[in-house]
Design goal:
By secondary structure, this protein is mainly α. It is 64% helix and 3% strand. The chain has 20 helices and five strands. The strands form two sheets. The chain has a three-stranded antiparallel β-sheet. Strands 1-2 form a two-stranded antiparallel sheet. α7 crosses α16. The two termini are 36 Å apart.
Length: 617
């Protein structure tokens, strides 16, 4: 990130005539010295992270040690993916949700902006790191990750949802879910057309192209909010006006949400972290969270509009079950606050987390213990607005967070004054001032009023720099694996990075579908890739062009296959929606799986040179 900021401020550009290759491709016939010098001197072989994995491999003379370094890189990549998932799901999204609550944003606006950004953070920051963290933008890696993830989600994840709980036709589905699904598919088709035009008519990215992606996103948000406005206006004309009441209370560790019961009475409840709010006027309401029952689909859902559903730890809760769960959490938190002291509160915050299950499964226990060291590190360096007030923890954050931000932005050893120390030496001054302020203005047991708003914004900044730093390290490792294996960046992006970033969507959508909410899962499998591609293309490439960088793109065989199958996945789903009105059978799911398998086969054949889709220039 330091190199990114420095280039942007200085308006430095990459000179395409400097003799560097576009891709890092050392010649096998070179001797050890030439290969090592090539890796160290070629911008395409460099990344933006701390660890130069390609240099470690090719500048090591011991052939056995080289493979140990490659193996260590694979393990490190797995660790980075785990940290990326945890930092995005457990810290970035909850802090972002608290900011939305603090800004008093409506659910509709938050759902298509801040909360959507939180859900797509790994994909978007991965694209940003691929394009901006390296000395030379790795456009193929970014494009492969974004398009590959879109194909994986729209085919494999979508198929998993359909095969888990195939839909049954009803007029209510046609009226609501049909139109919202069709809207997202149309915008996906527009996005895919923009990508195709980029490759067909241009060899380099032009500034207006990423700006067009951002403009399409603004249009999409405008369409969604306009439809929501007229839908609420129509609903208000039919239903009696519900008087609004304002309840003032001290904040607790769970943000406030509001739901309406059958009589129109507004209830104030609390919600745990890792949640998402859905406008579920087009989702059928269920009395329980029992497995999906096709017969219930025939019930009239017209009188259930406005029902709120919450997704917590891959589980869906409606109002009744949420209120019962909330009452239990309240009583438990109150009793614990009275029984334990600040030291035990601090220790319990760092205890192993088994999720939302009272009796975790064997897999849940293994996952909890595996993720525990990662969560401890992140909890020490990322403020979490939903954490209970703990004065010792806040003091620890005052010491560690400034240094962590400098480390993740690579400014720790930056020397602002010639002959002086790095910024790391100035950070303790800020920490001392913060500690004095905390000691003088807060008590040990009473939570300050400014605690949650300040912590949410600080946590947001800390999680952003963590995600960017992790993404930069991922790019370095993936680039090394590509050089060692000879696999192109585009293929690594559409497989390794796309699968790692989308596996959470697969697990979450299947879990939600099994609970009887397949339309909620399908909405995410279509809307998620749309948001990620629009911002994943728009943000990093706009910044790169503003910096003056040249970002080459080429319509080779792999890129052609990706674009073709992206169109196939969108058009096939759109035809089924138009013909069968959201009646998606198991046959449709099996066809989606077959399409994704065919896609991977074509990619392998193209990458290995068995099939040549485009003539060599």
């Amino acid at each position: 990130m330091r190199s990114l900021i420095a280039r942007f401020v200085a308006n430095d550009t990459i000179d395409d005539d400097d003799g560097d290759d576009q891709y890092c491709q050392p010649d096998p016939s070179w001797n050890f010295t030439d290969t090592c010098n090539y890796i160290q001197d070629t911008d395409a072989c460099g990344g933006g992270g701390y660890l130069a994995w390609a240099t470690y491999v090719y500048c090591c003379e011991d052939p056995v040690a080289k493979w140990f370094i490659v193996a260590a890189g694979c393990l490190f990549l797995l660790l980075m993916f785990m940290m990326l998932q945890s930092s995005a799901d457990d810290f970035f999204s909850p802090n972002l949700s608290t900011i939305v609550t603090h800004l008093k944003m409506s659910e509709s606006v938050a759902g298509v902006t801040f909360l959507a950004f939180g859900n797509g953070a790994p994909d978007i920051f991965g694209a940003i790191a691929s394009v901006l963290s390296s000395p030379r933008p790795k456009a193929d890696l970014a494009l492969g990750g974004l398009i590959g993830a879109a194909i994986f989600v729209t085919l494999a994840v979508h198929a998993s949802v359909v095969l888990t709980t195939p839909f049954k036709r009803s007029m209510y589905i046609f009226r609501a879910a049909f139109w919202s699904t069709l809207r997202d598919l149309v915008f996906l088709l527009v996005t895919a057309s923009l990508i195709l035009s980029m490759f067909l008519f241009y060899d380099d990215v032009v500034l207006w192209q990423p700006l067009t992606f951002l403009a399409v996103y603004i249009i999409y948000v405008t369409v969604v909010l306009t439809a929501e406005y007229y839908k609420k206006k129509k609903r208000a004309a039919i239903q009696p006006q519900i008087p609004s009441t304002t309840i003032s209370r001290r904040p607790t560790i769970i943000p406030d949400i509001q739901v309406y019961d059958e009589e129109g009475e507004k209830d104030s409840v609390k919600m745990d972290h890792k949640y998402s709010m859905f406008d579920t006027t087009h989702f059928r309401r269920r009395s329980t969270l029992s497995p999906y029952n096709h017969q219930e689909e025939e019930t009239d859902a017209a009188d259930h509009e406005g029902q709120a559903f919450i997704v917590l730890h891959n589980k869906v809760y409606r109002r009744d079950s949420l209120r019962s769960r909330t009452d239990t959490m309240r009583s438990r938190q109150q009793s614990e606050a009275q029984a334990i002291g600040p030291v035990f509160t601090l220790l319990s915050f760092f205890a192993v987390d088994f999720g939302d299950e009272e009796e975790p499964s064997t897999f849940g226990k293994i996952k909890g213990y595996v993720f525990w060291p990662i969560l401890v590190l992140l909890k020490l360096t990322i403020p979490l607005s939903e954490a209970p007030w703990s004065k010792p923890l806040v003091i620890m954050h005052a010491v560690l967070v400034p240094q962590c931000i400098l480390f993740n932005t690579q400014f720790m050893f930056f020397v602002p004054i010639e002959g002086g120390p790095g910024l790391w030496a100035y950070a303790p001054v800020i920490s001392v001032l913060l500690i004095v302020f905390i000691l003088c203005t807060t008590s040990m047991n009473e939570e300050p009023r400014f605690y949650r708003p300040i912590y949410s914004y600080l946590g947001f900044i800390s999680s952003v720099v963590w995600i960017y730093c992790i993404s930069a390290e991922v790019v370095d490792v993936v680039d090394m694996l590509g050089v060692v294996s000879g696999i192109s960046q585009a293929v690594l992006g559409l497989t390794l990075i796309a699968w790692a970033n989308s596996i959470g969507d697969l697990v979450a959508d299947i879990s939600i579908a099994k609970q009887g909410y397949p339309r909620m899962a399908v909405a995410g499998s279509i809307g998620g890739p749309l948001f990620n591609m629009l911002l994943g293309f728009g943000i990093p490439f706009t910044i790169a062009k503003l910096e003056g960088d040249t970002v080459p793109i080429a319509l080779d065989g792999v890129n052609l296959i990706m674009i073709v199958f992206l169109f196939i996945s969108i058009l096939f789903t759109m035809v089924n929606v138009l013909i069968f009105r959201a009646h998606l059978s198991r046959l449709y799911g099996f066809i989606l799986v077959a399409l994704y398998v065919i896609f991977l086969v074509f990619i392998i054949l193209s990458e290995t040179g068995v099939l040549v889709w485009l003539p060599e220039p």
